UniProtKB/TrEMBL annotation:
Organism, as annotated: Flavobacterium luminosum
Protein name: T9SS C-terminal target domain-containing protein
Top-level lineage group: Bacteria
Length: 426
């Protein structure tokens, strides 16, 4: 009995230590990045394509692991159709024809990979680079805040297949689990740029978990309107934003990781989290919901090997941007290596209660050149005093990434924070 009691105490101690270790940033009793993610996708070789997808998929279709598929031009899964993708399937976007997969409004995608057998979307180029092909687009009929309640993404191809928006926040566009999207975000002159993953007016019955975007030339994940929960997402060296929310998106982002790099960011500012309510104010129906995002247990990190050099060169920008008429709750998260950590739109008026919708709580600001600023200002004393109040429980530290995270220079790194780096923070 004594040994059994001792064993129970040991088990309780281990569980407590694991939870304490993961107080902020991404969490998990083990490294949930293992097996299904890939942090060096240029080195991975896949089999040659043996099946071509093109035009419209208008009957229920299954893609099988035994084949390697080529997306030739934009491929549309039309309304009323379900596309099922078997675990372990590889799908390549064609560089020459701007390959993309578009799940139209009213259609569904069932792409359930596994931890040891993820689904992979990648480029068919022998020399892979960001923006080789289009990306994965999922369109639904949940609400957006543009006048008329619907909109169309102006991609090259059939505009009738890129309409999104409606009145059903509980709609389902399917299930996506354990899936990677590599080297997407094609820019096509005269048309809207692709993102790695575009999620437009998707309803809250849709499941999107354990999805990784690597080396996107556009945004890694762009959420346009809808009501969606995103869990265990990973972005690696996106040129655009890692997570962009707009058009009245009602979104939850949970336990997700953005790994930026100074040399990968675009010439214009790109953020780990970018929250706006609209692209054009005069197209917005203010009787509809404005964007509101709740992001919890996120790790936003600049992975540069020489932060001081990149800061001096002006290559490091802010990690989070919050526009006017927008709500963001960011809590229990880590922001490491940015300049500064957070920028608020200069139309947000703190003295008029403008901070009520911007909740920054239980955050770990590490190695940031400044923490929270209003746009186009250099004096942030009032904001620092406000968010530095003990009620927000924000912490500040200057620790190298190699010392802060459990495993930094590994084939599959572990971005959970070491326990001592939080408990020792001021």
């Amino acid at each position: 009995m004594k040994n059994l009691r001792n064993f129970k105490w040991i088990a309780l101690f281990v569980a407590f230590a694991a939870n304490a270790q993961q107080e902020k940033g991404i969490i998990g009793t083990s490294n949930w990045l293992n097996n299904w993610t890939e942090f060096n996708p240029k080195k991975v070789e896949y089999n040659e394509t043996n099946s071509i997808l093109y035009g419209k998929i208008s009957t229920n279709t299954t893609l099988y692991k035994k084949n390697v598929y080529l997306l030739q031009g934009p491929v549309y899964v039309t309304s009323g159709t379900t596309l099922t993708i078997e675990a372990g399937t590889v799908i390549k976007g064609d560089v020459a024809t701007n390959g993309a997969l578009i799940i139209a409004k009213g259609a569904k995608i069932i792409a359930e990979g596994t931890e040891t057998d993820p689904i992979v979307f990648t480029s068919n180029s022998s020399q892979k680079k960001p923006g080789d092909w289009g990306g994965l687009v999922i369109l639904g009929d949940a609400p957006i805040n543009k006048f008329g309640g619907t909109a169309s993404l102006n991609y090259e191809g059939d505009p009738s297949q890129t309409i999104y928006g409606g009145t059903n926040p509980t709609a389902s566009s399917g299930v996506i689990r354990f899936l990677r999207v590599e080297f997407a975000g094609k820019k096509i002159k005269g048309y809207k740029d692709y993102n790695a993953v575009s999620i437009a007016a998707v309803g809250n019955k849709t499941i999107i978990e354990n999805v990784m975007s690597s080396f996107s030339a556009g945004n890694a994940f762009e959420v346009l309107g809808g009501d969606v929960t995103l869990k265990n997402l990973v972005t690696l060296r996106s040129t655009g934003d890692d997570f962009r929310f707009t058009q009245g998106a009602q979104a939850k982002l949970d336990n997700s990781l953005a790994v930026r790099h100074s040399f990968s960011s675009g010439a214009t500012r790109a953020r780990a989290i970018n929250v706006t309510s609209y692209e054009k104010k005069d197209e917005t129906d203010f009787t509809k919901a404005l964007t509101n995002v709740v992001a919890t247990h996120c790790t936003l990190v600049n992975s540069t090997d020489d932060l001081n050099r990149d800061l001096a060169s002006g290559l490091v920008k802010e990690s989070v941007f919050v526009a006017e008429n927008t709500g963001l709750t960011l809590k229990k998260s880590v922001i490491s290596g940015f300049s500064p950590a957070v920028v608020l739109d200069d139309e947000i008026k703190p003295e008029a209660g403008g901070l009520k919708k911007v909740k920054l709580e239980e955050l770990y600001f590490n190695n940031c050149k400044g923490n929270i600023f209003l746009e186009n200002t250099t004096n942030n004393e009032d904001l620092e005093d406000y968010y530095g109040n003990p009620q927000f429980a924000n912490l500040y530290e200057a620790t190298p990434n190699t010392e802060m995270f459990i495993a930094w220079d590994a084939k599959t790194p572990d971005f959970r924070v070491k326990i001592g780096k939080i408990t020792a923070s001021k």
